[in-house]
Amino acid sequence: MSYDLMVFDKEQAPKDKEAFLKWYDEQTQWAEPHDYQTITTTIPALQKWYEDMVKHFPDMNAMDDDEDEELESRYTDYSIGYTVIYAAFAWSVADEAYSKMKELAQKHSVGFFDVSGNGETF
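RESULT FIELD:
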């Protein structure tokens, strides 16, 4: 089990909580016709967010076999959609991941959804 958070395009996501949750469920069906690993699939603001985020929480799908073992707990599984990036972290880094992800969401003016926590969105 992982600690999950999501960033998203604020222009595409519904503002109403109930509609947002339905939209979230649709996004996490992973039905878009692409591999969910290619960063150029998503919007520019989410690409910039990702570029900053992987400096702190490396993408486990882009790691070389000879990577630093000390970083292993920080490896994150990113699923990249057209208008969302879903991130699955180790629970051991949950607090730090939450803080950094929210900080970078604000910096890049993208939405933030606390999937594993209290469902906070902004």
